[in-house]
Specification:
The structure holds three protein chains of three kinds. Chain A is an all-alpha fold. Chain A contains two helices and no strands. Chain A is 43% helix and 0% strand. Chain A is flat and about 45 Å long. The two termini of chain A are 30 Å apart. In chain B, the strands form four sheets. Chain B has an eight-stranded antiparallel β-sheet. In chain B, strands 4-6-5 form a three-stranded antiparallel β-sheet, with no helix packed on it. In chain B, strands 9-10 form a two-stranded antiparallel ribbon. Chain B is an alpha+beta fold. In chain B, helix 5 runs antiparallel to helix 6. In chain C, the strands form four sheets. Chain C has a 16-stranded antiparallel beta barrel with strand order 1-2-3-6-7-8-9-12-13-16-17-18-20-22-23-24. Chain C has a three-stranded mixed β-sheet with strand order 15-14-21, with no helix packed on it. Chain C is elongated. In chain C, strand 19 and strand 20 form a beta hairpin. Classes of the chains: A mainly alpha, B alpha+beta, C mainly beta.
Chain lengths: 77, 294, 420
């Protein structure tokens, strides 16, 4: 089981590197940032809702985090 | 280099000459000695940028690009950032703002006379104009042989911003940089008060000054009351349309824009001028403060 | 004279971005404060309900310095599955504190109804520029409830590459949590004792250390698409047992509970998390798709797939449907029951949150601007957890009981935010 997990992670890392490492054609010129600059495209556009969800699922499931650092708490219910 | 510092009320004013004109830096909360050191710092940065991006000096970055004779030139990080900005301005202005159009000045001499160049002479230069003919792959730029770039349309405003940013870190309180009418303030004066600056009104040929108030950001003017040709009652201003090689028709005499940075203000003012009779319509859509002189 | 009615699109935003890339604009004079507030209600019918309020403020000090501060207050009350199995007869359980008891009807899942707690959490952080392309962020966190405290700190750095089309970030965080259950911590695998009798307790508080490290990448793909990829490693050491949870020991033939033991979890856990997310602007609005893979050395593997699709309604209004699917496998030491007479395992828990289950969330959010710079949002979500209620090998009566009753929850949230 642990062996398989390790190979899944390795495969993910290789995929990520090949996707982004060698691709010079990705990205936009500065004047093409009009859509990316919108609030709805921000990765942290709704931090309060994201943190509330994180706290709910932290209390109800065995997995937490992943996207960034969350707060703690006992999650005991 | 000659710099002078004098006290004007509660501010210290340092002056020097660079970028083909008088330059001024104003400081709050400084004594004369501090102001002198800061003025030296400002003058050194302004001259550094002037030398680096001047077409006329044979040891600068722009000269190396223009003298390459069709070969690729590798540029340093600062030049690369300015070339990126030039590329952005070209794209954002629909091709109007073009740093390769300076070569047209071989045909045009805006000395206030009525000596227009011949159509053939202008047309012969057009194959050497157009940013789209330039291959810019950061950090390498390749100009077709014979073409030239001129970052003069960005350099003075860029110098005002960079100098202001240096002063923001070095000065004890707010400062204002004025490079021949291109201004950048590091912030409001003490108590949130505005800087009051006299700017030559380029729309008036009697050189009268207008007093403007600034609390931060940049201010730049495009247009020059003295650079034009006049023939048969038609005024030919000095901004050239890179596609025709001829002065932009019905352009305002000058446009002044206030924006977050001097560079941004300068580009908006120049692009507005390049819109000719639509300058006001263009400016109205930008969400900045502007003044247009017809 | 110039007089046209042509309208021109604004190039200012893109020009500002281009100027910032050119290295000017670093002394932006824009100083702004964004404040977001929200109130959330959470209700599991017949089980717990909670009310959570949040106030967050973010301030841009200019020159690339950003600060944020957040206060959360929540109150929780209700009942939660204790881990014990249903029985054919009425079962009476001593409350974990040792004071008082509660009873469960035949066939019903035993619910410990003593949960009543309030939590206050405070966090703050500061981001500062490191040169033109990098930023550093540091933060502190603390929370307290009557039986649990957590204190933590985190730090991260980010650097932009390729004209800010690619951002790499790396961070670490550390927290120390302390649990001080009412009456003390039961000795692992100790039998529940009748009210009044002394339950053997561990000395002192239970504490655990959580150390996290993460490595992330954000890549702009094209004008409308952004992807994020993050790997996190988390190491938790110390007391991770839930002092309120039980595991039932049942008769191998009848399935009737003969003993209730306090659970016992390993004191170390290492988690690996791979998180991927893509956001894309489409003509109707922004689609946000994410996937998270988690695996740990407790034997849990989980998959989380989440989709938000923001439908722009015009006039600064939007409607955002949300779907989330979660699946986890059970921890190696998860045991819905233990058999009487068999040797005790090293560790055991019957907490359904460490069992195998699926979770589905369906939600809808509406947001709109009210006046300049003021926004209100409202959302409703339904969350449902379901697992195997009739696991193979259930002895005697247990085969006829639902050993994993579905958990339903409703979430309501109102948000109000404003910026200057």
């Amino acid at each position: 089981m642990r062996q398989r997990n390790r190979s899944i992670i390795a495969a993910g890392a290789v995929l990520a590197l090949s996707l982004f490492g060698g691709c010079a054609s990705l990205g936009v010129q500065p004047w093409e940032r009009d859509l990316l600059a919108q609030r709805s495209m921000r990765l942290d556009g709704d931090p309060v809702t994201a943190a509330l969800d994180e706290h709910i699922y932290f209390s109800k499931e065995a997995s937490t985090g992943g996207a960034g650092f969350g707060g703690g708490g006992c999650g005991c219910n | 280099m000659i710099i002078a510092v004098q006290r004007r009320g509660d501010i210290q004013a340092g002056t020097f000459t660079a970028m083909a004109g008088p330059c001024e830096v104003l400081f709050e909360g400084c004594d004369v000695e501090q102001a002198r050191r800061l003025t030296e710092l400002a003058a050194a940065e302004t001259l550094r940028i002037e030398h680096k991006f001047s077409r006329y000096r044979d040891d600068g970055a722009v000269h190396a690009i223009n003298a390459a004779g069709g070969a690729a030139v590798r540029v340093d990080d600062e030049t690369a950032r300015l070339l990126d900005l030039a590329a952005s301005c070209h794209a954002l202005s629909g091709g109007r703002f073009d740093v390769t159009s300076g070569i047209l000045r071989r045909a045009w001499n805006f000395d206030g006379s009525d000596r227009l160049p011949s159509r053939g002479r202008v047309k012969a230069l057009l194959p050497l104009v157009g940013w789209d003919k330039v291959v810019w792959r950061n950090p390498e730029i390749t100009l077709p042989a014979g073409m030239e770039i001129d970052l003069g349309g960005l350099g003075k405003e860029y110098a005002a911003d960079r100098t202001a940013e240096l002063l923001a870190a070095a000065a004890p309180a707010a400062a204002l940089v004025n490079l021949g009418g291109d201004l950048r303030a590091t912030g409001p004066r003490g108590g949130g008060a505005a800087w009051r600056v006299g700017v030559e009104d380029p729309g008036r040929e009697d050189h009268a000054e207008r007093v403007l108030e600034m609390r931060g950001g940049g201010l730049a003017t495009s247009g020059d009351a003295r650079r034009f040709l006049l023939k048969d009652g038609v005024r030919y201003g000095h901004l050239l349309n890179p596609r025709t090689g001829w002065p932009v028709r019905d352009a305002p005499r000058a446009v002044t824009v206030a924006a977050a940075t001097c560079t941004e203000a300068g580009v908006l003012a120049t692009v507005a001028m390049l819109h000719g009779r639509d300058a006001e319509a263009f400016l109205a859509g930008q969400g900045v403060a502007w003044w247009c002189h017809r | 004279m110039a007089a046209t009615d042509r309208t021109y699109r604004s190039i200012r935003g893109a020009l500002s971005a281009a100027c910032a890339l050119a290295g000017v604009g670093g002394v932006a004079t824009s100083r702004a404060t964004d404040v977001e507030t929200a109130i959330l209600g959470y209700a599991e019918p017949n089980r717990v309900s909670a009310l959570e309020t949040v106030l967050q403020a973010r301030h841009d000090f200019g020159s690339g310095y950003l600060g944020n501060f957040k206060v959360v207050y929540d109150a929780l009350t209700g009942a939660s599955a204790s881990g014990a199995v249903p029985g054919a007869a009425v079962q009476t359980f001593t409350r974990p504190s040792g004071r008082g008891s509660y009873s469960t009807a035949p066939g019903e899942t035993p619910l410990d109804d003593t949960f009543r707690d309030a939590r206050v959490a405070v966090s703050g952080g500061l981001t500062l520029p490191l040169g033109r392309l990098s930023t550093a962020t540091a933060g502190l966190y603390g929370s307290g409830e009557h039986d649990y405290t957590s204190m933590g700190a985190n730090a991260s750095i980010a650097r932009d590459f390729d004209r800010r089309n690619r951002t790499l970030n790396a961070g670490v965080s550390f927290s120390r949590d302390t649990v001080t259950p009412e009456g003390g911590r039961p000795i692992p695998f100790a039998s529940m004792t009748p009210v009044g009798a002394d339950l053997p307790r561990l000395a002192g508080d239970g504490s655990k250390n959580v150390a996290d490290a993460m490595l992330g990448l954000v890549q702009v793909i094209d004008r409308a698409t952004l992807v994020q990829l993050t790997y996190s490693l988390s190491r938790v050491t110390g007391y991770q047992t839930d002092p309120y949870k039980l595991v039932s020991v049942v008769d191998p033939t009848s399935g009737a509970p003969v003993d209730q033991l306090f659970e016992n979890r390993p004191d170390a856990r290492t988690k690996h998390i791979l998180f991927g997310r893509a956001k894309r602007q489409l003509p109707h609005g922004v689609v946000d798709l994410s996937y998270r893979f988690m695996t740990d050395d407790w034997g849990i593997v989980s998959h989380t797939l989440e989709l938000r699709d923001r439908l722009e309604l015009g006039g600064d209004k939007y409607l955002q449907p949300h779907v989330r699917f979660y699946h986890q496998s059970a921890a190696d030491f998860y045991a819905r029951w233990l058999l009487d007479g068999a040797a005790l395992p090293d560790h055991a828990t019957a907490d359904y949150r460490l069992g195998a289950f699926d979770g589905w969330t369906f939600g809808l959010e509406h947001g709109r601007n009210v006046g300049r710079d003021h926004r209100v949002t409202a959302r409703v979500e339904y969350y449902r957890q379901s697992g195997d209620g009739h696991p193979a090998g259930a002895p005697g009566d247990l085969a006829s009981f639902d050993l994993f009753p579905v958990v339903d929850a409703w979430i309501f949230q109102l948000g109000y935010s404003f910026g200057s």
